[in-house]
Structure formats: structure tokens, C-alpha cells
């Protein structure tokens, strides 16, 4: 069990200074007064299974910073597990809650599940006192809070970041396996109402995930800064075919003081010819990387076969570049499948013909330094013409919200979470079936050939995020749950 240090970051005043965020900050400050009062004197313990990578680790630091600034006591603990079998099991649970896998869980599974959680118990008990609040994120540490509750007088909350809209045999099996622990919980939080299993309906709240607009992942980056980050990270150098061409002229125009020189009209036009399509996610089969690569290759093949080489449309498609990015599996301990998924994707890439390979980059992002990782993701998202999230299942895709905040048009699958976030033909396109390669390829072609729509969708996306998916709207709901559970 490790206590995670949260580094200083943006303050409430910084958010207020952004005109578009001002009213949500004020609403939050107004609506949180009573709830903050209710949790005075107790500590909120957030417990999950990793301090880096994925949506939970992404959101917690910003939430903690703001709550601490307002005087709340909140800490973050990460469970430790040496046994590989533990994360194999919890990954199977994760997949099963999404309705995938065989849904088979044995008594041996239960043994490893409980024994790893028990190994983390004594450290937790040294820290957690009667009257505190314990919040467990996702299935990995679920038995731990139930064990803590036996020793301490604390309410326990389970925050589930994943979900499937309909019950299936597989989801029933995993909820069944988890029922001895869920029975002990006082409250549950899901991202969408449709994810709540029947057995838990009575004591749940709904909190859609949200982004921190001023984190390193989302803060504004001037173009020269983006280029600098991509150069430093090696992406520009190694993948000349991708970004060097696109920014070649501009790179030479960065002045010694770091400012950005004039842009030449001809070069602006060249931008149109080199669109970039990006998906950045964990290496997880449910993220639909494989299908996206297939659709991209199909799009190019079809273009070469049926397109008119002199047309603008042909050139756009021909020049388009695909970036698939995700964490370097060497740094991810709680996702044993990542390495395998990446291997499958690499094999698919190697099997493509060389002219396709030149247009595709698979990037491993350095997760060991969270700030560096966040800035690279930020710069990549900002350099993209279209941000894709082709998830087979997605409880809620933070990546889509991040892209919308950056005014990027998004192309997402019809997975429930993404459908809730994205408005079809208003903030991007929803391609219902992420495994339908032909329709995905068609959606890509449409978006690539409608730059004005893309601009409009990007703009609408940012407004949608400000209204619904920022840190502050989410914190109001969290505080409300804490206050209710304390009274
Ligand atoms: N992410 C990252 N580096 C990577 C891959 C993903 O920082 O190499 C971030 C991504 O920007 C997002 C989060 O991890 O903030 C993923 O959250 P999401 O809800 O999209 O998916 P999850 O991983 O929780 O299933």
C-alpha cells in the first residue's frame, strides 16, 4: 500500500481567470459550502490500483488539489500486489463488467483476490481512523474497504468507472462474484444510470467523469510549444513522415525567444493536405485500435483504387497519417494484457504494405514521468485533425472529452459512455459499430473531406465540455455524496 503525493497545480483563482470557466467555478463554490462543512474533521481516503495511466489516476490529483485548497482532508492510497495472478484476475473482472470474456470466476480466484487485498490491510488500518470516509475505485481494491469496515467505523463507497448498459450472462457472473463485498458498501457511484446493476440500484449516485482544463494534459499549448514537446519527445524526428512535413516550415520559423513567426499562406494550404488522425489509449482490445488501423488501411486502399489522383479529396486521404499512442507497457503494472495487445497491433502493422506503414505510427508514451506524458498527449491531441476513440466498450472516454476541450472533432464508437459524451454531427461523428470497418472508413473519409464541419464540431465540443464535463461540475456531486453519507 502506497500513499501518493499530489504535486501542487492550478488554484481556484487560476480557473476563475478563464472567462468560460468562471461561472462553473462560482456555482461550485456556492453549492459546496454546506457539504464542505459536513466533512470537516474527517479524512477522505481514495483507494485504487495505480498512480499512473488510465482515467482514475488522471482525475484524482486535480480533485484532491481543489478540495484541499478548500480545507478538506483527502488522501490517495494505491494497493500493491506482487502476484501476477491478481492483475490477471482483476483484468478479467474489468472485461466482464464490460460484458466481455467468459465470465468464469473460481474459488481460487477469490482466494487470490482476498489475499492480495488482505496484504494491504494493515497499512490501511494504520492510516484510516473512525469517522473517515473510504472510497474505493474499480474492482481491484473492492474487498479491502469491506475488510477496513470490520475494523473501523467508516462509511465505504465504491466508485465504478466502467459499465455496460445491458445485463448479460457475463456481467451477471461478475456481479455475482463481487456480491459478498458489495453487500458491505454504503454507497455506489457509476458514470451513467444505465450501468447500475439491478442489485445496487437503491444506494447509488451518478457522476460522469470530468477533465481538469488546466492540467498538463489539457492546458493551452501554443503551437511552438507543441512542436517543441514533440521534438523533444523524439516524435518529430523519428516520424518525419508524420509531423516533420506538416510543421517543417513552421519549425524553422520559431524565433530564438521561443515565439512563433509568421505563417505563409502556401504553407497553411499544405496543412490541409496532411491531416492527422489520432487515437491515444491504454493498449486494451476494448479500445478498438486494431479495427481503426484496418479502417485506415481500407480507406487508403479504396482511395488508391477508386479515387481521382488529381482531386483534393484524393490528396487529403493519401497524405493522412494515423497515430496510435498508448503507455509504454514497461511502466504499467496493473494491466497484464497490454503487452499482448500491443504485440498483436505491431504484427498487424508489420503485415501492412510499406506504403501503408509509412503512414502509420505506433507510439509508446513514457509513463514514468506523468508530466512529460501528459504534455506529449496534449501536444499530440492538439496536432490532430481528428481524434478517434473507437472503443468496443467504454464506460466514459476521458480521451474524447480531452479532445473536445481542445476543440478537436471526435470520431467515436456507439459505446454507451461515448454516446453520452458526443453529439452526432454536432461535436463529431458517432460510428455505431466500431468493428464495422467499412462504415468506420467511410466516417473517416467524410470527416477528412469536411474541414469546415470539423472546425464547427470542434468548437461545439469545447462548449459541451465547459457546460458538462469539467472538474467543478463533478466535484459538486462528489461533495454531495460525502455530505449525505456523513449525515
Ligand atoms: N492516457 C495517457 N497516456 C497514455 C494513454 C492514455 O495519459 O499513453 C490518458 C488519457 O489521456 C486519459 C486516460 O489516460 O486521460 C484514459 O482515460 P479513459 O477514460 O479514456 O480510459 P481508461 O484508460 O480509463 O479506460
UniProtKB/TrEMBL annotation:
Q: Please identify the protein, giving its name as recorded.
A: Glycosyltransferase
Describe the protein's quaternary organization and the partners it interacts with. Homodimer.
Please name the GO terms of the biological process aspect recorded for this protein, alphabetically: glucose metabolic process
| Range of residues in the leader sequence | none
A Gene Ontology molecular function term of the record: glycosyltransferase activity
Q: Which family does it belong to?
A: Belongs to the glycosyltransferase group 1 family. Glycosyltransferase 4 subfamily.
Annotated source species: Flagellimonas allohymeniacidonis
Pfam families associated with the record: Glycos_transf_1, TreT_GT1
Keyword terms, alphabetized: Carbohydrate metabolism, Glucose metabolism, Glycosyltransferase, Transferase
Q: For the Glycosyl transferase family domain, which residue ranges apply?
A: 275-463
The Trehalose synthase N-terminal domain extends over: 46-197
InterPro entries assigned: Glyco_trans_1, Trehalose_Metab_GTase, TreT_GT1
Amino acid at each position: 500500500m502506497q500513499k501518493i503525493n499530489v504535486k501542487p497545480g492550478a488554484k481556484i483563482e487560476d480557473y476563475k481567470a478563464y472567462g468560460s470557466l468562471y461561472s462553473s467555478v462560482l456555482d461550485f463554490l456556492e453549492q459546496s459550502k454546506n457539504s464542505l462543512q459536513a466533512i470537516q474533521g474527517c479524512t477522505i481516503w481514495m483507494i485504487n490500483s495505480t498512480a499512473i495511466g488510465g482515467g482514475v489516476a488522471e482525475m484524482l490529483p486535480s480533485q484532491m488539489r481543489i478540495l484541499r485548497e478548500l480545507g478538506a482532508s483527502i488522501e490517495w492510497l494505491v494497493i500493491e500486489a506482487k502476484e501476477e495472478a491478481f492483475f490477471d484476475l482483476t483484468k478479467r473482472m474489468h472485461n466482464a463488467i464490460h460484458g466481455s470474456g467468459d465470465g468464469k470466476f473460481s474459488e481460487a480466484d477469490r482466494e487470490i483476490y482476498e489475499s492480495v487485498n488482505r496484504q494491504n490491510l494493515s497499512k490501511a488500518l494504520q492510516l484510516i481512523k473512525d469517522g473517515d470516509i473510504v472510497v474505493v475505485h474499480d474492482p481491484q481494491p473492492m474487498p479491502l474497504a469491506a475488510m477496513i469496515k470490520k475494523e473501523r467505523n467508516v462509511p465505504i463507497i465504491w466508485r465504478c468507472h466502467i459499465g455496460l448498459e445491458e445485463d448479460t450472462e457475463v456481467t451477471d457472473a461478475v456481479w455475482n462474484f463481487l456480491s459478498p463485498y458489495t453487500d458491505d458498501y454504503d454507497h455506489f457511484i457509476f458514470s451513467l444510470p444505465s450501468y447500475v446493476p439491478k442489485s445496487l440500484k437503491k444506494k447509488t449516485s451518478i457522476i460522469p467523469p470530468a477533465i481538469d482544463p488546466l492540467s498538463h494534459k489539457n492546458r493551452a499549448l501554443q503551437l511552438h510549444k507543441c512542436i517543441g514537446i514533440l521534438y523533444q519527445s523524439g516524435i518529430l524526428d523519428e516520424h518525419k513522415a508524420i509531423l516533420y512535413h506538416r510543421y517543417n516550415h513552421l519549425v524553422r520559423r520559431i524565433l530564438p525567444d521561443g515565439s512563433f513567426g509568421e505563417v505563409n499562406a502556401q504553407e497553411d494550404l499544405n496543412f490541409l493536405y496532411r491531416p492527422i488522425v489520432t487515437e491515444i489509449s491504454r493498449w486494451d482490445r476494448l479500445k478498438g485500435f486494431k479495427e481503426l488501423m484496418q479502417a485506415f488501411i481500407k480507406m487508403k486502399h479504396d482511395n488508391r483504387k477508386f479515387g481521382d489522383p488529381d482531386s483534393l479529396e484524393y490528396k487529403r486521404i493519401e497524405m493522412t497519417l494515423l497515430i496510435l499512442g498508448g503507455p509504454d507497457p514497461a511502466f504499467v503494472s496493473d494491466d497484464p494484457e497490454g503487452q499482448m495487445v500491443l504485440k498483436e497491433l505491431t504484427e498487424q502493422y508489420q503485415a501492412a504494405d510499406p506504403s501503408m506503414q509509412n503512414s502509420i505510427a505506433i507510439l509508446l508514451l513514457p509513463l514514468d514521468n506523468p508530466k512529460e506524458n501528459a504534455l506529449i498527449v496534449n501536444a499530440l491531441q492538439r496536432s490532430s485533425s481528428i481524434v478517434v476513440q473507437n472503443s468496443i466498450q467504454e464506460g466514459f472516454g476521458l480521451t474524447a472529452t480531452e479532445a473536445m476541450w481542445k476543440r478537436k472533432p471526435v470520431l467515436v464508437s456507439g459505446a454507451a459512455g461515448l454516446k453520452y459524451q458526443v453529439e452526432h454531427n454536432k461535436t463529431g461523428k458517432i460510428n455505431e459499430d466500431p468493428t464495422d470497418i467499412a462504415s468506420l472508413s467511410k466516417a473517416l473519409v467524410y470527416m477528412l473531406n469536411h474541414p469546415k464541419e470539423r472546425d464547427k464540431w470542434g468548437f461545439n465540443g469545447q462548449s459541451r465540455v465547459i457546460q458538462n464535463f469539467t472538474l467543478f461540475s463533478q466535484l459538486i456531486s462528489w461533495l454531495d455524496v460525502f455530505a449525505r453519507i456523513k449525515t
